[in-house]
Each structure stands twice: as structure tokens, then as C-alpha cells.
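In response to reviewer comment 3 from the previous cycle, which asked for concrete evidence that the modeling workflow produces usable outputs, we include below a single protein chain processed end to end. The sequence was submitted unchanged, and the resulting C-alpha cells are shown without manual editing.
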Amino acid sequence: MFKLKRTLGALLVAAATAVGSGAWAQEIPGFSNWDEVVAKAKGQTVYWYMWGGSDAINGFVDEFYGKPLKEKYDITLNRVPLADTVDAVNQVISEKEAGAIGDKGTIDLIWINGENFFTLRQADLLLGPWAEGIPNSALVDWSNPAVNLDFGRPVEGYESPWSSAQFHFVYDSARTKEADLPRSYAELGGWIKANPGRFTYMAPGPGAFVGTRFVKQLFFELSGGHAQWVGPYNQELYDKWAPEVWKTLLSWKPNLWRAGETYPSGNAELRDLFANGEVEFDFTQSLSGAAPNINAGLIPPTSRAFAFDANLIGDFNYLAIPFNSPNKAAALVTANFVLQPDRQAAQVQPANGFCCGWGIDVNRVADAAGKEAIAVAMQNLGNAAADPNRLAAALVSDIAAEYQSKIEADWQKYVLRGEALPN
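The workflow returned the following C-alpha cells.
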């Protein structure tokens, strides 16, 4: 940890200089160039409203963003903790109704995604488009649907990525050989048959989106690929492939843990089954793979993460700026700063407490300081993380929110309760 912080600290000056010198990629509402943004941000306080339920994440934001923003840009970061992001959404809506427009609001930046973003976007309560105008947006792969679609809905420059997560698996290298790992759902089905009672998955449902994600990915593989699922909800497409998914899951059921009579209700229950040796695989969303749970003493130190070769859903956490932000320049500089390669390198490492994935495409980083920071980060991830190249190759976006509730309800009906499948 000490070595990493010293390395990133040494890189900060060079990397911070690059933040203010990028080309003006796209006009940002209210500003004529990036130098003007940086100049107006000086002396401002950015009020960043974000979920505050993790002391580790709170500390990371204060240490890796708050201090350097003050030192380099004279921006004061005021992190405002939320119990739920919808509280910030409701505050912006209330301010609009009360006539607090222009720069008369109270929120400068929101950590956001999914329905909360869509609510503000539909109500035209966000500044934008700006996300492809900040200099470090050049490091973002905007062509990737996992980036330019937020749970199936277009981002369109109204939010900028901060970090990411991607579904993959964890195994215990003391019990399972890497060569024997399944790399697709088809191979997993064979593995389950050959190892009865040694696999289960989370019951899809509200509060267990990872279980739903596990099932969604099976839709992609059985139907021949993910691309056809991108865009608005397609009932005809769902009706065509859903019976095949339920048939596949039902064919596994006799060989699942407890013969599929019961399923883990969430992350903690599945993790405990894995840690106790009752099942061979756990799920993770962290680029750090098994490391966070190893460090917490929750799973064996021989645990390792691994990925399928295709159809692993990833999504991004974003930053959005309300239409009535009082400190828009400081918010823009902050959103740009979190995309800096050395800040991105800091956030992926378990020792720093955040443990989310890259918000940038690391292959787009060209400067020596940024490349060195990334190399240090990858080295510090250790062997508990999955192969990042394999993960990147398998990355696909999540799909329209309507599929979520439909899959959860139908899984309960046809797989858990065993009702007759539709003809």
C-alpha cells in the first residue's frame, strides 16, 4: 500500500498537468474552452452527493480526490453522503418546482446510474451534453454500449463514467484446477452434470440483481449473441428465447446444490456456501476478483477469479451535473479528474478500499506516467483477479430495465415453482 501511494503521488503532478491541456473535444454549455472551465473552478466548492454507506469508499474519495483537487485546482470537495441516490434526485426535482434555476441549486455532482439518471434526464434536469467535451473523455470508449447505454438507455453526453463493475466467477484453486474451469454456459452445464450438488446460483429477484444478471447472460448465449438485446424492450424476442432459458435451467436443477429445491438469496449466502466448501463457484462484480473477500477473511486465500469467454454483463457508475448546479466549473473539473489514469489506477486496487473497475479504456492511455500508474495497479491486483484481457473481451452491456422484472417473475414461476412452460 505504501509503495503504491508513493508511486501515484509521484505521478500526480505530471498527470494533473495533462488534465488542463487536453484538446477541446466538444463544446460544453456555458463555456468557450477548457481553460475557462479550469479558471472559473478556482476557489469553488463542489458539492458531491453520493451514496455514503461505505466508510472505505468515503475515505477513498476524500484521500484520492479531495486533497489533490484542493492542491492542484483550489477546488474544495464537499462530499455529501446519501442513504439512497433517489434522495438527490428528489431534491433536484423539488428545487426546480420551487424555482431554483440557473445556479441556484445545492447539488453540483451526483454519483448516479440506472433509473435515477433516467428520471432526471426525462425531466430535463441535467446539464448537458458535456461528458464528451471534457479532455479526459478521450480515454473513454464511447463506442461501447456498456458505456454509452446506462441500463439500456442512451447516455448522450449527460453523464460521464467514473468506475465499472462486471459479472464473473470465483473458484478455489486448492479444489479446482484452472484447466477444468467452464468458459461458457454450455460448458457450465456439462460441469454441473459431472459434479452434482457442487453448483448453485442466486435466486433472481429484487435485491439480488446479480442472480438476475446470471440468467440474462444465458439468454444472450442461447440466442446467439448480445447485440440483438440492445435497445428498447422487445417482447417478441423475449417470448422466443425465454422458454429455452427455462428449459436449460430446469435441466440443471437435479444436479444443483440441494437439487435446486432452494437457492441462495443474495451475495453473502452464496459466498458463505463457497467459503464452506459446499459449492465450487462464487460470483463477483469486482475487477479485484477474489481479493476483497480474501482480505476480509471471508473466503480461502487460495480463491481466484475467472471469466467466461463471452456475454459477461458490465455496467458503469457515472457522474451527472444537475441543471442548476451552483459550481458547474468545479463539477466539470472533478468529473474530468476522476478519469485521470493515476486516479483510475488507484480505484481498482483492494488496498485503497474502492475496488471498482476502470471507467476508462486503459489501452487509450498514451502518456508514460499514465501507463506506469496502470502497470503498477495491474501488478498490485495480484493473482486473485481474473485475466483483465479476458474480462474485457467478454464485456457486454446490460439491457432495458423491463427485462429485469420480467426475468425475475418468470424465473420464480417456471424454475422455482415448476409451473408448466408456455407452448
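The radius of gyration is 22 Å. We consider this sufficient to address the reviewer's concern, and the full set will be provided in the supplementary archive.
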